[in-house]
Each structure stands twice: as structure tokens, then as C-alpha cells.
């Protein structure tokens, strides 16, 4: 049976995905019905677009206060430290990603919330994963971020079985956005390359030209997240670990796609510690479970994404939104 969402709390609302997700949710459910929160004191969202509160997800009392104040029934828990940032401070990464998620799920049980969405990531995989990662395979992450995402998937499934809590999640590939800068992940190069192509006409990439990873354009990411959240629970055989795919390409292929629109674009390569992380992840994913259980289907490929990204970024630079 499908239960409707009425009052939504978003953690990490100023993150790369959280920013645009909050806007999309407000467009769908109404500004006042989507409560945005982040660790930042000042909102990143348009002024007057809806309620915003500074929130540390490690503060369970503060989360509970917002749940009761706004009569929250659904939480999109987007707050997390990502892979590259997490490797610089693994203990903080564990604390934020795991204890923040536990706080949200415990409060969801306590207050009988309708639904909790906690995204996972391609970082759950590691060496030995097939080039096209199946839905069911061994999980051996090489980063603390990946470790926390594996634990989050398993913990979410535990709350489904133990408490009957409706927890859902999908394994995000690299997400590419024209609206929000990346936040310290290994796939950040796939976003930065577009910004630098417009800004400087050249880019120095921190992974090799033959690095191939699964990616997704932000409009498809938002669609996947909301579609999963709105799916009928009775149709779901999986809950917290859905593979979602869209496209896979190498950095060289992405640079070639950019040159179709900016022929003079130049790229150099200077691999750093993130290369080892990228090498531990699969080239693509088998998302047949998501397609069968809740009708997932992406809309963008590399060329259509590149065209749209460059058009939108050019306008943002020309109007002074970006410098």
C-alpha cells in the first residue's frame, strides 16, 4: 500500500544533491511542507522558499524537536561526508554517516514516521566486484565512506525487519549537476570538467583518461530518488540497496563529448590518491531490480547531458552567477 508523504524533513539540504532535491520536493509538495536543514548556519536555498534550520545530525534532540514541531512524516537523510573528504578524517566520517543515520532511524521508529530515505553509493563495492556490478554481490569497500554506506544498507534492512520501518535507499553513481558544486567525492572530476571547460577552456583531471565509472545527470538522480520514495512498499523486494544506472564513460570520452561543443577544450591528467578509489569501483551497474520493482528508467546520455550542462553553465557565467 502506498502511503502519502505530507511533511518532509531534508538533512544535508545544502549538499550537491540536497540543494536541488529540496527545490524539487518543494515544487511537488509545497514550500512550507519541506523543511530544509544543514550544518551550515545560512541557507543555500532561495530566500523565502521555505523553512530552513541549522542542524547537526549528531544531535538527536535537535532532530526530534524539528520532527515534533513540524509534524514530520518523511525524512530524506542526505547528510554525509563523502569518499575523498572521509579519507582525510575516517573517524569523523564514521561518526557523521553512521550515528546520524541511527539517530534518524531511531526517531522515525519512536514517532512512527511514514518513510525514511537514506541514499547509498557505488562506494559500497571494491576489488573483486564484476565490471558491471550486479544487484547482489560481495561488498568490500576501500574507503570509510563506502564502509559506512554498506553498514547503512544493512542497518536500514534491519530496521525494516525488526521495527517495520519503511527505509529506502539507492546506490548513487557519480552525480553531475549544473547547479551545485561537488562536495568532496571521488567522482567530482566529472562535474569540475564542465565548469573548467566554460571558465578556462582546459582542465587538469585527478584520475587517468581511461577511468570509467557509472554516472548520472542530476535530473535523473532527482527522479530516481523521488520515484523510489513514492513507490508502493508492497512492490519492493529490496529496500535500502537499489542499483540505479544511467551511463558510463571514461574521462577521455567525456572530454571528447565536450569538444563537440567547445572544440578548443584541452585536458591534462595528474592522478592522485583518488585514482585508487576510482579503480576499486565498477565500470557500470545492473539496475534491473530497480527497473522491475519501481519502474526506474533514465532520460539522459553523455551527449544530451553535456549539451545541457554547457548551455546552463554558460548562462550562469555570463550572468555573473558563477565567476
Per CATH, the architecture of the largest domain is 3-Layer(aba) Sandwich
Q: What is the helix content? A: 40-55%
By CATH, the topology of the largest domain is Rossmann fold
Q: Any low-confidence stretches, pLDDT <50, length ≥5?
A: none
- Largest beta sheet, briefly? 6 strands, parallel
Strand content: 15-25%
The sequence of SSEs as H and E is EHEEHEHHEEEHEEEHEEHEEHEHEHH
Considering the protein shown, what is the CATH homologous superfamily of the largest domain? NAD(P)-binding Rossmann-like Domain
Number of strand elements: 16
Which CATH C-level class of the largest domain is it?
Alpha Beta
- Name the average pLDDT: 95
Number of domains: 2
N→C terminal distance: 48 Å
From the spread of the alpha carbons, the general shape counts as globular
Strands ordered across the widest β-sheet: 3-2-1-4-5-8
Count of helical stretches: 11
Radius of gyration: 19 Å
Structural class: alpha/beta
Amino acid at each position: 500500500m502506498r502511503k502519502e508523504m505530507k511533511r518532509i524533513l531534508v538533512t544535508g539540504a545544502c549538499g550537491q544533491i540536497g540543494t536541488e532535491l529540496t527545490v524539487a520536493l518543494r515544487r511537488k509538495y509545497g514550500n512550507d511542507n519541506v523543511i530544509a536543514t544543514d550544518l551550515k548556519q545560512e541557507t543555500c536555498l532561495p530566500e523565502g522558499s521555505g523553512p530552513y534550520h541549522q542542524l547537526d545530525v549528531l544531535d538527536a534532540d535537535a532532530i526530534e524537536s524539528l520532527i515534533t514541531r513540524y509534524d514530520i512524516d518523511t525524512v530524506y537523510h542526505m547528510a554525509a561526508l563523502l569518499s575523498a573528504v572521509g579519507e582525510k578524517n575516517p573517524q569523523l566520517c564514521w561518526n557523521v554517516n553512521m550515528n546520524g543515520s541511527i539517530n534518524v532511524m531511531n526517531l522515525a521508529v519512536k514517532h512512527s514516521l511514514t518513510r525514511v530515505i537514506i541514499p547509498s553509493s557505488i562506494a559500497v563495492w571494491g576489488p573483486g566486484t564484476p565490471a558491471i556490478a550486479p544487484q547482489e554481490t560481495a561488498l568490500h569497500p576501500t574507503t570509510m565512506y563506502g564502509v559506512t554506506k554498506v553498514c547503512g544498507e544493512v542497518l536500514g534492512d534491519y530496521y525494516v525487519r525488526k521495527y517495520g520501518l519503511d527505509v529506502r535507499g539507492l546506490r548513487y553513481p557519480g552525480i553531475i549537476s549544473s547547479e551545485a558544486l561537488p562536495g568532496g567525492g571521488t567522482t567530482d572530476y566529472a562535474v569540475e570538467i564542465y565548469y573548467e571547460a566554460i571558465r578556462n577552456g582546459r582542465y587538469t583531471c585527478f584520475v587517468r583518461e581511461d577511468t570509467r565509472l557509472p554516472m548520472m545527470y542530476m535530473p535523473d538522480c532527482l527522479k530516481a530518488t523521488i520515484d523510489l520514495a513514492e513507490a508502493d512498499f508492497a512492490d519492493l523486494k529490496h529496500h535500502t540497496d537499489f542499483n540505479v544506472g544511467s551511463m558510463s564513460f571514461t574521462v577521455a570520452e567525456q572530454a571528447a563529448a565536450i569538444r563537440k561543443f567547445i572544440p578548443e577544450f584541452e585536458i591534462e591528467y595528474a592522478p592522485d590518491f583518488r585514482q585508487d578509489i576510482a579503480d576499486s569501483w565498477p565500470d557500470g551497474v545492473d539496475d534491473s531490480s530497480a527497473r522491475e520493482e519501481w519502474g526506474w528508467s533514465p532520460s539522459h546520455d553523455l551527449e544530451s547531458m553535456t549539451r545541457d550542462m554547457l548551455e546552463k553553465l554558460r548562462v550562469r557565467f555570463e550572468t555573473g552567477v558563477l565567476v
